């Protein structure tokens, strides 16, 4: 018979406690009702150094921060009631404990902040009572968590995230955010729910506000890969201001004509100059790539490619393009930052320089 999550959780707690020399497992109560009010997922009675302890276990199938915070408050109520009840006659020590299939670093921090022991089925644990102290941390994430993050940072969702990160203090209603990000109401609602579960946004009277932009962006950059698509490389004899002059007035982010914008180091040069790269990078659609080939007289890269044209499948990168100068268009500061961060050490330095100007809340 396949055990449910609650039974697996209690077994996992017993297994961890079994590694503590001198600790006695007295009994395990499954889903007891306390005082006719609370049904608790489990009470684990143990003895250590002559003292009785009871681990008050709450099991959450979803360990996202929002649900963890709710569980912490539940556990506080359970323990307060147990201390007042007749069941506390022979027990002085109640240990609130949360168990979940997976607890992210943020969820674990919430538990620690509130003095709640925790364990997840991946292997992360922190249990402290009396002289017992167990702490374990593993780098692994379950596949479900990896899939959830990929969903949050997928191309359709990334357009919504870039809008939120553009001005973290602004409150957004679903309709306004959908219009700004050129996304459907349903997709905005799904992204908003995922961010709420991680406590990265708050919903207030005037809309949703991104309250944890640093956590969002740092999580995004850890799992970021540059947009999918195909690349065209070539060589041009035009450099510096001569190249820029040939493109002034020709670049365009709008769908009414060929789309082409500066990207990567080339975008950073216009947004927040750091160092000029010998390679010019662009995002373009098919017609935009043809325009660039013509304007730059792009030829075979026999002498070494100095132009990279990326034709991304994610067209939202054009929709929120920046215009740092008249008729000069490039990827937005957020998109440019992420592209640079995914590069080499020099590009990361350029990303940090750009963040100083456009993302002061990141530092």
Explain this structure to me?
The protein is α+β, with helices and mostly antiparallel strands and 363 residues long. The chain is 41% helix and 24% strand. The protein has 14 helices and 18 strands. It has helices spanning 5-17, 65-84, 105-113, 143-152, 155-166, 174-181, 185-197, 213-223, 240-247, 264-271, 286-295, 316-319, 333-341, 345-358, and strands at residues 24-30, 33-34, 38-39, 42-48, 51-59, 93-100, 117-120, 125-129, 132-136, 171-172, 201-204, 207-210, 229-234, 260-262, 280-284, 307-312, 322-325, 328-330. The strands form 5 sheets. A 7-stranded mixed sheet has the order 1-4-5-6-7-8-9, sandwiched between helices. The chain has a 4-stranded mixed sheet with strand order 13-16-15-14. It has a 3-stranded antiparallel sheet with strand order 10-12-11. α3 (105-113) links the parallel β6 (93-100) and β7 (117-120). α5 crosses α6 and α10 packs across α13 (333-341). The protein starts with a helix and ends in a 5-residue tail after the last helix. The mean pLDDT is 90.
């Amino acid at each position: 018979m396949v055990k449910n999550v609650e039974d697996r959780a209690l077994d996992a707690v017993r297994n961890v406690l079994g590694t503590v020399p001198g600790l006695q497992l007295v009994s395990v109560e499954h889903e007891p009702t306390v005082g006719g009010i609370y049904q608790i997922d489990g009470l684990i009675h143990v003895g250590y150094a002559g003292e009785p302890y009871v681990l008050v276990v709450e099991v959450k199938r979803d360990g996202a921060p929002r649900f963890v915070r709710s569980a912490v408050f539940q556990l506080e109520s359970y323990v307060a009631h147990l201390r007042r009840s007749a069941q506390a006659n022979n027990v002085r020590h109640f240990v609130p404990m949360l168990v979940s299939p997976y607890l992210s670093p943020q969820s674990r921090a919430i538990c620690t902040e509130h003095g709640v022991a925790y364990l997840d089925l991946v292997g992360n644990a922190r249990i402290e009572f009396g002289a017992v102290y167990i702490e374990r941390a593993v780098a692994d994430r379950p596949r479900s968590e990896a899939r959830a993050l990929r969903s949050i940072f997928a191309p359709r969702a990334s357009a919504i995230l870039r809008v939120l990160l553009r001005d973290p203090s602004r409150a957004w209603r679903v309709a306004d955010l959908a219009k700004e990000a050129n996304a459907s109401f349903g997709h905005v609602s799904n992204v908003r729910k995922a961010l709420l579960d991680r406590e990265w946004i708050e919903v207030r009277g005037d809309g949703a506000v991104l309250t944890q932009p640093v956590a969002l962006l740092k999580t995004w950059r850890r799992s970021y890969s540059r947009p999918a698509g195909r690349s065209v490389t070539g060589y041009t004899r035009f450099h510096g201001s001569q190249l820029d002059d040939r493109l002034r007035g020709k670049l365009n982010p709008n769908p009414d004509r060929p789309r082409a914008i500066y990207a990567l180091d080339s975008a950073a040069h216009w947004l927040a100059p750091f160092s000029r790269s010998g390679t010019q990078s662009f995002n373009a659609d098919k017609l935009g790539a043809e325009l660039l080939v013509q304007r730059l007289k792009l030829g075979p890269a026999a002498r070494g490619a100095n132009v990279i044209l990326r034709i991304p499948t994610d067209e939202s990168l054009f929709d929120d393009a920046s215009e740092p100068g008249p008729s000069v268009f490039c990827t937005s500061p957020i998109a440019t930052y992420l592209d640079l961060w995914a590069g080499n050490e020099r590009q990361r330095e350029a990303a940090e320089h750009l963040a100083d100007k456009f993302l002061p809340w990141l530092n």
